Amino acid sequence: MAVSKAWNWGKERSPIWLEPCEESYYLAARWIGMGCETLLDLGCGLGRHAIHFARQGVPGVGVRPVGGGTAHLRDWAGREGLDIDVKTADMRRLPYPDGAFDCVFAFHVISHTDTAGLRAVLSEIGRVLKKGGEVFLTLCSKETWSFREAGYPRLDGNTVVKTGGGPEDGVPHVFVELDEIPELLRASPSSGSAIPTIAGSTDAGKAANTISFWPGVRYNGYRPILPKCEG
After folding, report:
1. Distances 61 to 20, 32, 39, 176, 197 between C-alpha atoms, Å
2. Which of 55, 60, 167, 178 could form a disulfide with 7 if both were Cys (CB 3.0 to 4.6 A apart)?
3. How far is it, in rounded angstroms, from Cα 211 to Cα 14?
4. How far is CA 46 from the centre of its chain?
């Protein structure tokens, strides 16, 4: 049985989680330019990216994993007068119809499960994404200390459970090799849109903590690749 667990945001005090990542500025401009009308911020945390996209004029839906509160994002959106639909849901079983979103943004979230759970999440992303839509996502690299040397308990050959306190205590993290990802994407069944056709560079991520998939831009010393969603 696949497992998943949200961060404990009550134990996180760093202001970094209130500032949008640098990639999101590029993506907001790109997606607005391509006419994105519906965006899913999957695993929206405290809401930094849902707020950022909404400020730029992209109507958004923020989904927090089961076990994560939504009050912070609701209050933030209310103060700024932004229209963001905030829900609590299991990312392995999203409460949306097929083809509901033009774009999906999943930053440091879909790895918070095990191998079976990751396949389920990728399938759900493909299902709720419109044909011709785009997705940005990050995954944890096996070339990291957390996977190779930390000695965390293992759930399966790809998954560890972080310990030692803090917001990630007890949270599973599934890790991948770069060359495993094409198979993961192709093997994720969906109805409607999917994430199988990969274009761009695949020689990156070996020294990075995470591997990103997004529209062909180089960033932080590694080359992301683009899952071009084409039915």
Report:
1. 16, 16, 6, 28, 25
2. 167
3. 23
4. 14
